[in-house]
Amino acid sequence: MNRGGRPAALTPQHIVLLSEIVSRMPHATLGELAAELDHLGAVQVCTATIRRTLRAQGIVRTMPKQHALGASVQPEAHAAVAKRYGYTAAHRREAGQYSTDLTDAEWRLVSDLFERPEGSRGAPARYERRRLVDACCYVLRTGCAWRLLPSSFAPWQAVYKAFVRWVAVDAFEQMQDRLRQQWRDRMGRSAEPSAAVIDAQSNRASPQGGECGYDAGKKVKGRKRHIVVDTLGLLLAVTVTAASVQDRDGAAEVVAQACRKAPTIERLYTDGAYGGQCARAIEQTHGIRVEVVRRPGNRSTGTLHDPQRSLWQEPAPGFVVLPKRWVVERTHAWNERWRRMVMHHDRKTSTSAAWVWLAEARILLSRIALGS
Asked: Is 172 helix (H, G, I), strand (E, B) or coil?
């Protein structure tokens, strides 16, 4: 009996045609099904009508079953399992219980910097050096106090004494230097760079005492990290001062440190804060060319990789416009990922600089070990 009202949007012939389309296009979206039905059946309906009609016919879309990591998967189901990248259980099957712990591959790259040489005199070590390094990485990542280290590590006093001893001998800086050269070699670059970038970043400081100041430009009370990186964004030098120290005043020490480590540096890219007298002093002292990347060029396309042309002219044939300032900003962003780096908690600026070396080395360890 016809009760009146609006007629159905799809006739039985349309429903049969829709079922055939679904069997022929099982992975199509509702919009694609509606478009195909319009093309074949000359009827226009919305996706809600398509969904309601399919449900009435008992046709429901099902998602592929998710397989647990490491579980056996049938060969025909391999295509339904998404490929994963980065650290997995296979990478860490022999590592500790925390994600910050070093894997066997990572420890083999730097173990000689922390282990005592064979045949050395003195009492044997009470705690495994690898676990001490793992504890330092845990503090770096979580930002916790030394006294709040989990009991699975060595006592916090032993970890702290080992950390202070390694800071005194620049163990973390040596680790980062070695890994930086290995990564540059893997990228097809020479071991030492010929160009570098300098910048500074102000961060807050906790009320632990030590050197502290106020950066009126960034409205931050704390300390400032002056860093020099290569064109890949890898750290070459770092110094920590009070935030009240101007960028141009802190440039001399960090540039001198970078030139001692990499005498091959020929060009230094800076922003406007290092221009004028500061740039001329660096050129006269170290014999390197300083190029100030102003805001208009940094905002658009960057600087030209052609020393024979003006800084803002159009690129010559065969030369590519390359951004020269963004790599140091990316390095600052890398440092902000570590909770210990967000705020300065140490009284000594040398300790604050050591955390930067450890953070950079930890990133390079992950890169190199995953690619090995």
From this structure: helix
Give residue-wise pLDDT tens across range 317-355.
433 334 567 889 999 998 888 999 999 999 999 999 999
Q: Give the type of residue at 14.
A: H
Whether 205 contacts 221, CB under 8 Å: yes
The structure's pTM equals: 0.69
Question: Cα–Cα distance between 351 and 357 in angstroms, integer?
Answer: 10
User: How many CB atoms are located within 10 Å of the residue 152 CB?
Assistant: 12
Tokens standing for residue 256: 């001198």
| Rounded Cα gap, residues 41 and 43, in angstroms | 5
CA–CA dist 192, 185 (Å, integer): 10
For 82-113, give the DSSP string. Answer: PP--S--TTTTTTS-SSTTSPPHHHHHHHGGG
N- to C-terminal Cα distance for the chain?
75
What are the residues whose beta carbons fall under 8 Å from the beta carbon of 83, sequence distance 6 or more? none
3-class SS string, 306-327:
CCCCCCCCCCCCCCCEECCCHH
Alpha carbon distances (Å) from 149 to 22, 211, 351: 58, 26, 18
